[in-house]
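Handoff note, outgoing to incoming analyst
You'll be picking up this chain. Sequence as last confirmed:
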Amino acid sequence: MHIRRMNRLIREKSPYLLQHAYNPVDWYPWGAEAFFRARTEDKPVFLSIGYSSCHWCHVMERESFENEQIAALLNEYFVPVKVDREERPDVDEIYITAVQLITGSAGWPLSVFLTPDGEPFYGGTYFPPAVFAELLRQVAHLWRTRRAQVLQTAKELTEDLRALLALRAREMQGERTPAIFRTFLTQCMAGYDFEHGGFGDAPKFPPNTILPVLLWMAEAWEDEPAGVMALHTLNKMAEGGIHDHVGGGFHRYATDARWLVPHFEKMLFDNAQLAWAYTHAYTLTDNIEYADVAHDTLQWMIREMRTDEGAFASALDADSPDGEGAFYTWTQSEIYEALDAETAALVCQVYNIHPEGNYCEEATGRQTGRNILHRRDSLSELAESLEMTDEELRERLQEAHARLLEVRARRPAPARDDKVLTDWNGMAIAALAYAADTIEHPAYLEIAETAAEFIWQRLRDPQGNLLHRYRDGEASIPAYLSDYALYGLGLVSLFEASGDPRWLERAQTVADQMIEKFHDSELGGFFETTGEHDLLLVRHKSVQDRQLPSGNGAAAQLLASLSHLLIGDDPLRSERYAALAGETLNAFWQLLERAPTAAGSMLHAYLLLEGDTMPMPDLEVDWGAVAFEREGPVLVDVQLLAQPQGLIVSFQIAEGWHIQTAQPTRADLTPTRVEVQTDLPIEFGEPIWSPPKPYQVGGEQLMVYQEHAFVFFPIVGFRGGGPEEGYLRVRVVYQPCTDTECALPVERQFLLPVSLKEAPPNRD
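Most recent structure output, in case you need it:
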């Protein structure tokens, strides 16, 4: 009989830490004991941070932390420490920032080497076992033989961390102005994927904190590009494989730009924010498809994430017992076994299910024969092509989903992380309350109230202070700024949906505690921690959104919301909350101006604070308007020039590559095309292309563009009448080639806002 040895993690409550309790690694939880041992034995600390539903965390555990030889290296030369990032976001924020400074990127599992004083000197993310073993030997050798250099590196990195995370410089302060939304919109358009929705390339995450700002701008200011980006993104996510079409809800992110192949973990915070966004999209459009997605997402939360006590668990694992994705994917034969032939054929047609499958093993690329359900069109478009009414197709698919869900429930399911987190539950409460009020599902209100009451009764200490985590009957860890702010916002949503004054009273209590514990009375804004938390390298502030709204963004939203709700009944308190919300925005204003898309929650707070009094900002870009985007070896730059007057599209082409002219030498090559459309009364002349260069390929001479190229559209006049404000829509198509092969043609679209009020003086 084999008896597995336990380590110290067996005494923890975190499901993630308990997963590692039987590793041969002599893990410590984060705390004084681990660092005391490191100082006593003069060893560096190896810090591993992850979370229970993380696929690559599981991979590194299987490959390295269950490996006896690697465990022996860790135990001999280091003090190994394991952290659940969801329990200790304060620890995670500091050390993930350190790894970003070291390597330029970071993620989970996070692997960091620290001095016995907790100062980082090297780090990374996932390491393959052979690489990791060699790294451990090298770091141990450096610690023994080049200690002074290691300590100097740690000191310099820690100084950089403190400067970056404390965010206490007066130089960051400024006066808020609506002009920031012009910068926000321009940055959004520069990074927007006009084909697939969302921002950037793969991997692609739901833009949870950008969507509320775009939706607000679309509703309040009738801003067309904001609405297009928000709704197009919501459409493409709803159609894609990131969306669980059978069971509802969304996976964490897509590994591709098309939203097709997800990493299969499902997180409470993602689904709460997306349910809110789809509900809001329904209020804008009356499109029932948005309400359906919101409803199905909330139903998933209630069915699979609600605990016996009425709160919400944190996450479902990325991995299934039968393999990654096995729980969610289907073979064509499984569809036909579960449904009658006619319905199965419909489901296969709607969701692109084929015998060969579309899901490959990530490590090997091997075809599995399994399918990720996804659509290529909206339900309305599909209904038209199938010669059905929208309602008929919706009903038939809902019946099919219910049957497939019954079948899927018999499969071995991914593990659930059942810890209850105050901040994540706050977002779930807000989403449920908003949907109850907006899409008229009154049962959601009762469920939200039950969760809010659970937090109030079970996640506060005897002094009434909030706690961060609850599991197995125990509430622990002093609450962070985001706990107070996001739970407070959930209480505000409950009051708005129900009119019950107790929720408003409790929201005020939470806000007042937040101000007392976290507010920086000297320089404004809020710290993430209090004196009740461990003393870490820095008491930091956050304004950059990650998967959740930043602490300061959520805090400012809570204060702004309360200021409006109390303006009639308690004007003095309303004024105080409004002043603090404004002060918080101003404290970081120069940071926000540089990168507003990284701080959507702060901009959302600004919109909530100003409400209907916010003037529509000057959203046009002046005559120096510019947009650019890189796709592979080609950077495309689009700019509106005042002198000479016109639009120039420039191409910067990487060494070894070329693109074709507008009229290629050979018919089988894709011409470079630039098309300009606008509703503005601008008249463009014939395009002027830069001269191509001769290029020899296999004895054949072609005329191509290398290194640099441009096309210029001169403005030849202005028509009478027409709008003075609008957009230039620029479509660019090109095909990058080398000596031996050509890539697929690339299509890019740019949207430049323009105001003719600022046009040069020689306008007719």
